[in-house]
Amino acid sequence: MGLIRIKTRRDRSVVSSAPFVVAEGRAVEVRVETLEILCSPREHVPLALETRPPRNGDATEFLVNREHGLEFPIRDGIPIFVDQQAISGLNGRFRRIYDSWAPFYDLLSRVGLAILGVSEQKLRRDFVDRLEIRNGSHVLSTSVGTGSDLSFIPRGCKFYGNDLSAGMLRVCQSRVHRLGMLAELFLGEAEHLPFRDETFDVVYQMGGINFFSDQAQAIREMVRVAKKGTRIVIMDETEKVAKTLENVPGINAWFRHHRRPIVPPVEYVPPGMEDIETRELYDGQAWLISFRKPH
Description:
The protein has seven helices and 15 strands. The longest helix is centred in the middle third of the chain and has 14 residues, at 166-179. It is α/β, with parallel strands linked by helices. It starts with a strand and ends with a strand. 24% of the residues lie in helices and 26% in strands. The strands form three sheets. The chain has a seven-stranded mixed beta sheet, with helices on both faces. Strands 2-1-5-6-7-8 form a six-stranded mixed beta sheet, with no helix packed on it. It has a two-stranded antiparallel sheet with strand order 3-4.
């Protein structure tokens, strides 16, 4: 693990090789090794970590793209790579829905699965078993949500969770602390991931991609950040589920209006991918796509 020099606007700096960087006596909640895999989400250039004196309760730590003059605040230990109020299209609509329902999302999910006759534990355990997670694997969930998968993720891996909803990430962060896991969370779009090329041993998307503004771009990003040979796994509900749940109070917020028909986005798997597999699961209530990035 290399040393990282942290500069403030007044050019004070501290060098640290501890698991968490410490600046001016305060813990900066970005691990040194994490900074080495992050990049500016659209420009894909490295980021520097800067600390500043607190002002009006605002963030004091920032990840900075010095080449393009961009900065991304870190709040409550979560780097923020997107302006939520500026998000438009399906991403904007469903971000607001997820934020509004985040405190109740796990309950709604359990109710929905019960209506469908699907065991949540079996669903998540079976999915995680497909991911080829090994001891020491760097694992990325591109839409981690409330972190419902975390109970089934092997503890020997290094887990990274990205999501567009701050509300969902707050619930996920509480779950991470409760489970005592080593997991790092990021607020950003799946279509523009804040990670360098070929970083992760495991990349997956469980739920949510049905509502993305740009499914093709999101899948291209999964491929970009995956190491060669990585199996990428994507799963979501089918149109059959949408029709079943669109009249269930609370749950129907996702299915009533302003969505496109649900079709597995296999057409967006980039050319050259290997071991492409598409299937329906749980009596046609979920679709799954998996493929491998070639060596």
